[in-house]
Structures are given as C-alpha cells and as structure tokens.
Give the backbone structure.
Amino acid sequence: MAVEPLAQKDIEVRLAGLPGWSLDGDRLARSYRLASHFAATAMVVHIAQVQEELDHHSDLTLGYNTIALTVNTHSVGGAVTALDFDLARRVEDLAPGHGAH
C-alpha cells in the first residue's frame, strides 16, 4: 500500500490524540524535558531503535536535558503521513510518565 499525504483535517484529528505534539510547518514536532542529560541521552537511543524498527526517521536534537523531534515523510515530498503518526505514537510511549520506561 502506498503512503499518501494526510489531509489537514486528518492531521488535526490525529494530533488531538497526541498531546504535546504539534504541526510545525510541514512537520510533526515535539520536545521533551527530562530529569538529566543521561535520561535524555537514553531516550534518544530508544528513539533511534524505534526508528530503525519502523524504517522511518525523524530529525532528532539532543540538548542538555531536552530532546526535540520533527518528522515528515520525504518519499511523498515532505508531507505528513500515517508513518509520522506511527513514529510519534511510539516515541510518546517511550516518554517518562507513560509506563514504558
């Protein structure tokens, strides 16, 4: 099945189910503040593993105790697709406070 860009309404509906995530131009975006640099670094490693499993990768920035992600689907011209929401959901499940740690 081919990946298709999502309509604006579909994006808005899906974003409602992912608190903290937003649409930043043509990308989904989210940042996290963690307890320490080590915790942030560990989360980056877990995110990288998920991205490899999904074969779908975000732009990921590590700060002292922060992580920032942006993602879209390059193969459809940089639009937001269901793949981006799959990745966002998996990352959200890794975040502290979601029971996956």
User: Anything to note?
Assistant: Residues 56 and 83 are 7 Å apart (CA to CA). The radius of gyration is 13 Å. The longest helix spans residues 37-54. The beta strands are 22-24, 27-33, 59-62, 66-71.
